[in-house]
Specification:
Order of helices and strands: EEEHEEEHHEEEEHHEHEEHHHHH
Mean pLDDT: 85
Radius of gyration: 24 Å
Structural class: alpha+beta
Strand content: 15-25%
Strand order of the largest sheet: 1-4-5-3-2
Helix content: 40-55%
Number of helices: 11
Distance between the termini: 41 Å
Length: 413
């Protein structure tokens, strides 16, 4: 068997995997039992080089196209899985050809939607998950990415300070353009509405959806959420020349949505009585980039927002509002954030990523303070949370988990 391994940085450990065996029947000693979504292709999680990779068996031309698309999306800083290699030239023990394989890095602490809904979740889980998908789709469209098969099944979700952040995991039908057309956007939205309604009906049939959630109405609301966000990011705003404060107001609204404005197009009428503004370059990750610049922490957008709020509270409590922001941020990091996240025993650290853990500690401190009728310290909250809450949470980073193939599907669509 003459393997062809296409990779930007080939990992020698790839050669140790049984490429002469169909992926569907790979031996268990190579596999990692992580939650899997529904896929039209055979997909397996595999232990390699001390980590986990996802391997998808697919036709060679499709594998190479998806590999190139995912690499381009990573260069565009879009939330998608990291492509590692395409393996082609496979044959079995009898010399019969086997399909190629696309290898991607497993996204730690991520879950497919069926694994999320299989847990005991709050009634608004569907809204939060689908909101994350709407934000992902807007991000892709802003950058010129046409997805072509928008669905929950093609998405992974990571917890983000009580909400979720969505990542594209299947780019088989995706294409990247300098600018996406309104027709392409409409086509993606049409596909999204049909797929989301069907997937929610599937969850409903499996008793995994809250009874108050109506699948079609929920899909309608997500389309509305997409439209509102798209208009806020792209629509031209007109106002009188004496209302220049609206420029800063527009930028502030975009920042609050988690988008950074690199450039605005500002034009005036002939008589100069009215101004028009429109964002020309809009980048996501306003809060996460600020958190990175202040502390070096690489976290999700909502997590960054929550951490920055706690940092602001620390500055106020220490009367450090006029001190250098970076210096105070590093003091907060060493005195507040790191001691709190390190207080978790090593055997429980795979439950949640550190930033999400810190968010939960802040929530738990508020809960304990309300119960006690007085302010509780973060250390008090950490001690109680580690002993009474964290052990019961699912292990979202460990190589043990729920195979969603085992969740029954009773609906067809």
């Amino acid at each position: 068997m003459a393997l062809d391994i296409s990779a930007a940085r080939p990992d020698p450990a790839l050669l140790d995997l049984p490429w002469d065996v169909p992926l569907e029947v790979w031996p268990n000693d190579h596999l990692a039992a992580l939650p899997r979504g529904i896929s039209r292709h055979v997909v397996r999680f595999v232990k390699m080089s001390g980590g986990v990779v996802a391997i998808k068996e697919i036709k060679e031309e499709l594998a190479r196209r998806e590999y190139d698309t995912l690499r381009m999306m990573r260069r565009l800083d879009q939330p998608a899985v990291k492509p590692l290699a395409v393996i082609s030239g496979r044959t079995d023990a009898q010399g019969e050809p086997l399909d190629a394989c696309l290898v991607t890095r497993h996204l730690r602490f991520s879950l497919p939607y069926r694994a999320i809904f299989s847990q005991r979740m709050q009634p608004d889980t569907a809204r939060r998950v689908l909101d994350a998908l709407a934000v992902l789709l807007v991000r892709l469209h802003i950058t010129g990415v046409f997805w072509g098969d928008v669905s929950l099944s093609n998405t992974l979700f990571r917890r983000d300070a009580g909400d979720f952040a969505a990542y594209l995991v299947d780019a088989e039908t995706a294409s990247i353009y300098d600018r996406i057309s309104d027709g392409q956007r409409a086509h993606d939205l049409q596909i999204a509405h049909a797929n989301l309604a069907g997937e929610l009906m599937d969850l409903e049939a499996g008793d995994l959806l809250d009874p108050t959630v109506e699948p079609i109405e929920t899909a309608d609301r997500i389309m509305h959420r997409y439209d509102l966000l798209w208009r806020e990011l792209t629509e031209t705003e007109r106002f009188a020349s004496g209302e220049r404060w609206k420029v800063e107001d527009r930028i502030s609204r975009l920042n609050n949505l988690g988008f950074d404005v690199d450039e605005l197009a500002i034009t005036t009428d002939i008589d100069g009585t009215h101004l028009q503004i429109q964002p020309k370059v809009v980048d996501t990750g306003y809060h996460s980039r600020r958190m990175m610049s202040l502390t070096g922490l690489d976290v999700q957008e909502n997590q960054a927002r929550r951490l920055l709020n706690d940092l602001d509270s620390y500055r106020a409590a220490m009367d450090r509002q006029n001190d250098d922001e970076v210096q105070v941020a590093h003091e907060w990091l060493s005195r507040i954030y790191e001691p709190a996240t390190r207080s978790v025993p090593a055997e429980l650290r795979s439950k949640l990523e550190p930033a999400e853990l810190f968010h939960e500690l802040l929530e738990h401190r508020w809960y304990l303070s309300e119960q006690a009728g007085r302010d509780m310290t973060l250390q008090d909250a950490a001690d109680d949370y580690v002993s009474s809450v964290l052990p019961g949470k699912p292990d979202e980073a460990a190589v043990l988990g729920l195979d969603t193939d085992e969740i029954p599907i009773r609906a067809t669509f």
